[in-house]
Design a protein that fits this description.
Number of strands: 0
Shape: elongated
Order of helices and strands: HHHHHHHH
Low-confidence stretches: 2-19, 23-32
Strand content: under 5%
Helix content: 55-70%
Structural class: mainly alpha
């Protein structure tokens, strides 16, 4: 291969790698390279926006204490939109991104379903006379969150050779889930607020990552670095 051909091959690899969430996996198809657009901006925006909105209400913003408005957002943006991003990654052959986006999309759908009256989930944990949730409801939510902490740790390990932005996002999500689960188990408001703080940090990182994956191929006059952990790959 000539030096000029090698340069073009390297550029093609770099372009493909920058559009795939870590670790880099190339799709194999009899029809050549996949023409699907990168699902990373949509998936990361959905993840960040849903987490931002949910975490924000730990602090009763503008005096708003009724959190019902979060449910619709978690279903459509955090759930369906993020799940669609995962399906796109499945079609593109990116198993890691597909698993992450579909899993967190399912998380948002499952969590929001708890608070839909027709599901009967919240009613099962509430006093039949006062309709106020019993103490075991918080324990049940804690068990639910702990299971997602385990999943997030698996994702975090899988991203340890990706880039520092993605790895930092998942590490921050780990801390958020630990504090959220512990807050529900101990019924300590301080821990729940702390989970809100780390949730907001994680959402900010997710917004940055989404912008970094979106601002490519001349969309903007600048790009945002993702700080790859391994220098031999660009993700």
């Amino acid at each position: 291969m000539s030096s000029q051909q090698q340069v073009f091959a390297d550029r093609d690899l770099e372009k493909h790698s920058s559009s795939s969430i870590a670790p880099v996996q190339q799709a194999h198809s009899g029809h050549g390279k996949s023409k699907l657009a990168s699902a990373n901006p949509l998936g990361l925006l959905a993840f960040g926006q849903a987490l931002y909105f949910l975490s924000l209400f730990e602090f009763a913003p503008r005096g708003v204490t009724t959190t019902n408005i979060v449910v619709g957002n978690m279903i459509w943006m955090g759930g369906i939109a993020q799940f669609i991003a995962g399906v796109i990654d499945f079609c593109a052959g990116n198993a890691f991104g597909a698993t992450v986006f579909c899993a967190y999309g399912a998380f948002n759908l499952a969590y929001s379903t708890i608070f839909i009256p027709g599901s009967g989930i919240l009613a099962a944990y509430s006093d039949p006379q006062t309709h106020i949730p019993r103490e075991d409801f918080s324990q049940a939510v804690a068990l639910f969150v702990w299971s997602w902490f385990i999943i997030t740790v698996i994702f975090t390990i899988g991203a340890c050779q990706a880039n520092w932005v993605l790895f930092g996002l998942l590490c921050t999500a780990d801390i958020t889930l630990i504090l959220l689960a512990a807050g529900h188990m101990t019924l300590q408001e301080e821990l729940l607020k702390a989970s809100g703080v780390f949730g907001l940090i994680a959402s900010a990182i997710s917004f940055y990552a989404a912008a970094a994956y979106l601002y490519v191929d001349g969309v903007t006059p600048f790009t945002l670095p993702l700080f790859p952990i391994r220098k031999d790959r660009i993700v």
